Batch of 4 targets.
Target 1
Amino acid sequence: MKKMVEVEYVGVKDLSDIMCAAKSVMELGHYVSVSFSNYERTKPLVSVIIRRKDIAEEYDFCFYESSDWNDEYSIQQMNECKSILYNILAQED
């Protein structure tokens, strides 16, 4: 019997999902800023700012794109960011 182990990390697919969701959220009139930087020339730093149009609420996320599954903070930030974007989209339906 084979066992599967799921490893979570911040990868290109995650960044693509965030970019697609961010575009959809912007089309609904919300403010979203996504930026990538390479300050230390190691792993790309991803910064996402989300401002909702209907309430004065702002979300600010920073995390590293990384295949390092031990980077729990970046994984947590990425998951929270995706969750906020998806929640906004679900509320608008």
Target 2
Amino acid sequence: MLFKQKKQQEETKNDNNIEKIAVIDTETNWNDEVMSIGVVVASTVDFSIIDRKYYIITPEYTLGGMFSYTLDLKANKKNIVRRDEAIEKIILWLRTHNVKKIFAYNAKFDFRHLPEFKCFYWYDIMIVAANKSFNKKIPDNMECFKNGKLKRGYGVEPMFRLLSGKRRYCETHNGLSDAEDELSILAMLKLDLSIFEDFSIINKPE
């Protein structure tokens, strides 16, 4: 028992020494209000998931939205909370993990819907993933602008299929599942995070 406790303490200590990032995804209702938030905290060493959070926002979710069917209400009754409570819990949780950087696919959308998170650095995975200058998996037959950006077909679903080779992959449109998939895209790009810091930053804390 003592050996097990010591091992757990060492793992916790080592975990605290690892640089971590967060990947976030939101789903919105018919009024363009956030109705769910999914977040994963991952290691910058190998992009493995260290922790995850998922909240369904009330009363916003009751209005319904395009992806209401993915909310998984029955399994997440304890995670149905008001927006201010969810925001407070997530920010405290991120600070506990010493996270300073948030990544998202099409991050401007999520950042616009979560202005309370402006105290973090924000980076857009899509800006880098959709550019041939950085994403070497983009084939020559896909049309790009002169700056290397794809003209079309760079959403989460086609990008995941391109990078993974899994042609049958379908985006879940559940905040937590999508955050995990977006982390996978980040990992599959196999790029140093400094690339994102140089080319896809959309918010610097004041």
Target 3
Amino acid sequence: MRLRPRRLAGKADANTHKPNVERPEVGRSDPALSQEIQVSVETGAAVGVAPLDDDFLRSIRIDQSYSGDMTGVKKPLLTVPVRKPTKTEFVRVHPDLALDCFMVELKTEGERYFVSPEVAPFLGELVEPVRLRLCVTRQGVVFLWPVKLPKDERRADAWRSSAAEAASLGMHHWVRIAADMNLGAYQPYVATADLGSPSWPEEPFPKVVQIALQDRLIRGEDHPVVQQLLGRA
């Protein structure tokens, strides 16, 4: 005699009392619904389904030609870094706008200060003559490149001369520079593609320099940086 397995109490048979519920097929969608969702996502108007023939929503929906540019808005130039180009960015150097001045560099603090000609003799060999070159990146970031000027020495400084040559090259081409330790100089690289024309700032060059040096200018012997370098503070 064959024994039937006993059914546990409280558990219904999987084939009995099962409601007949129609499940949606995977991947099946309503063409009209898909169109509404696609238009909504592409235009960025709203998340979800919106009637395409609604006059109110159509009146406030962002047009597909929207590029993110806000017409009538101008970004003022508030910050101008003083630095060398990084090894990963292509830059252009303005062919005409430059300023020769004295710079003192605090390498431990990672800071640069600019010294008036009247104060420079107090610091002696601690100051560097530099040429501030107006530069701009492909993204339109404006900065001043302090290219060190050659000193009166018998042995030429390859770092100084190669930086000056790279800056001259950047007047007519998009370039990036990298420090080549084996070469003992900066190695420039010229972009092979047409990267377009540089977007120079609308502000006049004196205003750009003023923004860059507003907190980095040493005009007197009593400046804290001068006192620190001379061991007086």
Target 4
Amino acid sequence: MVDLDKKELDAFVTAYHAAYSQTQSHRESYIRTACWAIFMAKLPIAYWTSAKIIAYSEPTNALLFPMPSGLGLIGLTIGGLSQLYDMNPIFDPKNGLPGWKRLAGEDFGFYLEWAAKESKRWLKDYTSANAE
């Protein structure tokens, strides 16, 4: 099982590196890697949030994806990737402090729509840049 986890993490690293090589932007690399993962049916299980992010319906700057073995998580953030073994801290809506929140229901739709919109945006940018 550990080999599958390593391959999964390597796939994320490769996607992030390819995006960074093209854009030289960690924000764009995060967006492109998240889109790649979602379109490869690697759905996130949690996202980093806070009361402000929720209030403004902003997309997160960090997502957690499960490892194939179920024994860990891949943390995708603006700036890179990490391997995690828990979701601490957990978001508490009572105090509004930032933390991880499990994706559920409408959150999945939000991130699927976000990934589709962002993919169209960078494909349009790529097409425009190469048309000249």
